[in-house]
Amino acid sequence: MWHTAMATLLRNQRSNLRAYPWTFTLGHIIDGVYLVLVSYFSYVYLIKGDIDSRFAVYTGTTDYVTFAIIGGALSLLSVSMMMNVSRALITEWREGTLETVLLSPSSRFGYFAGTVVQQLYRCMLELAAALIVGVIAGLRLPHAEFLPVLTGILLYLLSCFSMGLLLGCVMLYTRDTYFVQNTLFALTSLLCGFQFPREYLPAILRTAGEVFPLTGALQGLRQSLLTGQMPSGGSLLRVLLLSALYILIALPAERRIERRMFDRY
Fold this sequence. Notes:
By secondary structure, the chain is mainly alpha-helical. It is built from twelve helices and no strands. It has one domain. The chain is globular, with a radius of gyration of 19 Å.
């Protein structure tokens, strides 16, 4: 598996350097900076620092700027990670190399693991730019501690990976990327609580958001960054179980879709 992961990482990195211009990464960097600036200007000029008293009760902090900047940065990370994992095989299909991948004896899990690591390397550039601007705009994390934050990050990456796998199945089946991915990203943006506490949502929407492992992972990571607390045991277990469920559904479903996709037309 590890040989497959390393080979996939190196191949994808070389492909990106040779085939895709830096303007692609620059576009994502601009998106991250834009999210930070929108949060800052909304707080300063739109609501003029007037935060609802319930906000502190729901989030454990009165620092809306830090809350929103963390959400914007993590939204950027989740979109990049899920999009890259989910589009991996359909990109192979579009480039005419999918049959080679399917016939090879390489580990499928290793293939996706290499894709994730390579994408994470590129995302660090985007996140770094967004966080630098965020610090200038007022991002402060005085209570963050290493172990809780590391646990939250690992949970968050796991949730993005599992959701990306299942999203990839839908993409392969429908032969569509744009509508499928943007529908999911719109739902997660609303239901997972990136820019505002989920407690403001109606109960039915809060319940709907619980089907995504990203919801609990986002709450746990944000809590560790803002308060220094370890994600709660219930939240940790829920994210792990949902992520495992997504992976257990996605991997066999993807193989069935792969076997049939060349016979559909």
